[in-house]
Design a protein that fits this description.
347 residues, alpha+beta, Beta-lactamase, 12 strands, Asparaginase
């Protein structure tokens, strides 16, 4: 049975518990912290978008199409579909001579409620550009267009079907994921992600290793090490693009900059790189609760990073999230459970 990571209180009484597992690993594979079963394969979902974006930079596509920090950060994003996100993805496609019809991530309404309400009031319809993965998919299309240019074929035609596991673009993405994690994903259990690309079940140990490597460059090829560094720099300079208004990833990286790269994935997954410590983090909340995953990630960052100014308050606000009802009355809180506190306590 998985240990409890996060507890939920209503008043002073325990109401719910969120079990899961946590792996913190260095770039050599040495385990810094292990809580729960870190060798059980899990689907990391969008938590690995940084790794999936490595070919965008390593292939030369980002340079060839002169992608900005904002555009590279969006390639690593699960954004809220706000106007800046939509315009940035559209700008990448326009530079390729394409539009949103080139995206194969599907249509999704914005997650940011005021944006959604505004669109509905104006009678606007959502497109693939509003999909939280539109930046990642715009990056895939960039890679496809560069490949098409290299073989002298039509970019739009070459890019078609890029979400398929056997497409040249997705083969590059899978190879980057294998190289970073040390797991041959072709032999891993496979599913289809929400945005239609393949997703692979991988151990938390291997995911944490991948992010330690992404944070340090150790264990990666020179091209992928440079790509990881460039992507982390872009995210640190444009963290709004990775999430959006009031999103955990954006708020934390706006404050910590390159000290922390963190990314949520669906179903309670979090991955992070802490370059100054040479560590990678991967955690999974078994019941898929996003707020519990955020609380656990905040607790990890609190425990590992020496912070100043308002950072402790920001992280404390998530690791010990105050719960309010619809009238604004405080009714409870989240807190790290004893097992997580014990695992993260100074040695």
């Amino acid at each position: 049975m998985s240990p409890i990571l996060i507890e939920v209180l209503r008043g002073n009484a325990l109401e719910s518990r969120h079990a899961g597992a946590l792996a913190i690993v260095d770039a050599s594979g040495a385990v810094h912290t292990a809580l729960g079963d870190i060798d059980r394969p899990i689907f990391p979902r969008s938590a690995v978008k940084l790794l999936q974006a490595l070919p965008l930079v390593a292939s030369g596509a980002a340079e060839a199409f002169q992608l900005t920090d904002e555009e590279l950060a969006l390639a690593c994003a699960s954004h809220s579909g706000e106007p800046q996100h939509v315009a940035t993805a559209a700008g990448v496609l326009a530079r390729l001579g394409l539009d949103e019809t080139a995206l194969e991530c599907g249509t999704q309404w914005p997650a940011r409620e005021p944006v959604l309400r505004g669109m509905l009031a104006r009678g606007e319809l959502a497109t693939a550009l509003h999909n939280n993965c539109s930046g990642k998919h715009s990056g895939f299309v960039c890679v496809a267009c560069l490949m098409a240019r290299q073989v002298g074929t039509d970019p739009a035609a070459f890019a078609r079907g890029y979400v398929a596991a056997n497409h040249p673009v997705m083969r590059e993405v899978s190879a980057a994921l294998s190289a970073a994690t040390g797991v041959d994903v072709e032999h891993a259990q496979r599913g289809i992600d929400g945005c239609s690309i393949p997703t692979f079940a991988l151990p938390l140990r291997s995911l944490a290793l991948a992010f330690a490597r992404a944070g340090t460059g150790q264990g990666l090829s020179d091209a992928n090490a440079r790509a990881a560094r460039r992507l982390r720099e872009a995210v640190a300079r444009a963290p709004f693009m990775v999430g959006g208004t009031d999103r955990f990833d954006t708020r934390v990286m706006q404050t910590l900059g390159e000290r922390l790269f963190c990314k949520i994935g669906a179903e309670g997954v979090y991955c992070a790189a802490l370059p100054e410590l040479g560590l990678g983090v991967a955690l999974k909340v078994d019941d898929g609760a996003a707020r519990a995953a955020e609380a656990a990630m905040a607790a990890v960052a609190q425990a590992l990073l020496k912070t100043e100014d308002d950072v402790p308050d920001l992280l404390q606000g998530y690791s010990h999230l105050v719960l309010c009802n619809w009238r604004g009355t405080e009714v409870g809180a989240l807190r790290p459970a004893e097992a997580l506190n014990r695992a993260l306590s100074p040695r």
